[in-house]
Amino acid sequence: MDKRYKTLTLPEQVVLRRQAIEDVLAHPEWTLPEAVRHLKKTMRLTTAELAKLAGIGARTLQDIEQERSDGSVQTMNRILGVVGLRLGVGRVKPPACTSPATPSC
What we know:
Elements: H1 10-26, H2 32-42, H3 47-54, H4 58-65, H5 73-81
Helix pairs in contact: 1-2, 3-4, 3-5
């Protein structure tokens, strides 16, 4: 737990984790570094603590957060796995059809 904050009870930590998960799922437009930073901040963890929980190096996590590295799919799954999430593929909505004469409409 980040020492800048008072120590939280286990139920309080669970509430923060749930909130972090809901926030990330509610904002699919966030980049992976933004999502990782939000998870870390919301759960009140330091970079070293989150890296240890994810089983990756603190420098690797720091590079991802600061957008110096994209991180591999495996690394991102380790980070997101801390809160029970994983990277996935989803369908993007096609742009709205503006002309019925367009063949793709």
